[in-house]
Design brief:
- The chain folds into two domains: 4-76, no CATH class; 89-192, Immunoglobulin-like.
- The longest helix has 8 residues, at 35-42.
- The protein has helices at residues 35-42, 70-76, 118-123, 153-158; strands at residues 4-9, 16-20, 30-34, 51-57, 63-69, 89-92, 101-106, 111-116, 131-138, 141-152, 161-164, 176-181, 187-192.
- It is mainly beta.
- The strands form four sheets. A four-stranded antiparallel sheet has the order 6-12-9-10. The protein has a four-stranded mixed sheet with strand order 11-8-7-13. The chain has a three-stranded antiparallel sheet with strand order 2-1-3.
- The protein is built from four helices and 13 strands.
């Protein structure tokens, strides 16, 4: 059974003050979250300033206080500074769904791998653009471009495309976000650590 930790925060702003494994009288407001939800904050991989405690609407219509990145909170609010206004871009996230385009971050091979599903290859009947472009940005600041990767669509239909990392930032996928123009119906990100 996983242990919980206490996240102490400012009730007005959602800013995080402290995360502990026991209750404290120093701060007034706290939520309990599983250790795994706060692990990247506790080990210093992520920073408190990049997260908030937010009142998130649940599928049943109720609200629940949750620990989330500021970016996630802004996207949920459709903050025009952080959401692609014209809907021609897709923010690519992890998923278990069967999708048309799969982007794999592969740490052992130090590369990005781009592939199309067999279902897509067997059924597509549209003209694809010459290239599809992927934007690698910071997770907490989508305006901070780490890298742009351009993949030839003809080559992608024939076989998987591998592109090696070229910057130190690409080795830490937990600090990255990936997006692309909407060329395919759906996308997903797969992370391989070992």
């Amino acid at each position: 059974m996983e242990n919980n930790v206490f996240v102490y925060y400012d009730k007005t702003t959602g800013d995080i003050f402290s995360i502990t494994n026991e209750t404290s009288s120093r701060y007034e407001d706290a939520i309990q979250v599983p250790y795994s939800a706060a692990k990247l904050l506790l080990d210093g991989t992520h920073h408190f300033k990049d997260y908030i405690v937010n009142n998130r609407q649940q599928p049943d219509g109720s609200y629940k206080l949750v620990l989330e990145t500021r970016l996630t909170a802004r996207l949920a609010l459709n903050d025009s500074d952080y959401v692609f206004k014209n809907k021609v871009f897709e923010w690519i996230t992890e998923s278990d769904a069967d999708t048309d385009c799969v982007i794999t971050w592969n740490l052992p091979q130090q590369s990005w791998q781009f592939s199309l599903s067999k279902r897509f290859k067997d059924t597509y009947n549209t003209v694809l653009p010459k290239k599809v472009v992927f934007f690698i940005t910071l997770e907490t600041d989508m305006d901070f471009l780490i890298r742009t990767i351009s993949v030839d669509c003809d080559q992608l239909v024939r076989s998987d495309v591998t592109v090696v990392f070229e910057s130190a930032a690409e080795y830490n996928v937990d600090k990255l976000s990936i997006s692309s123009k909407l060329v395919f119906a759906d996308y997903k990100l797969v992370k391989i650590y070992e």
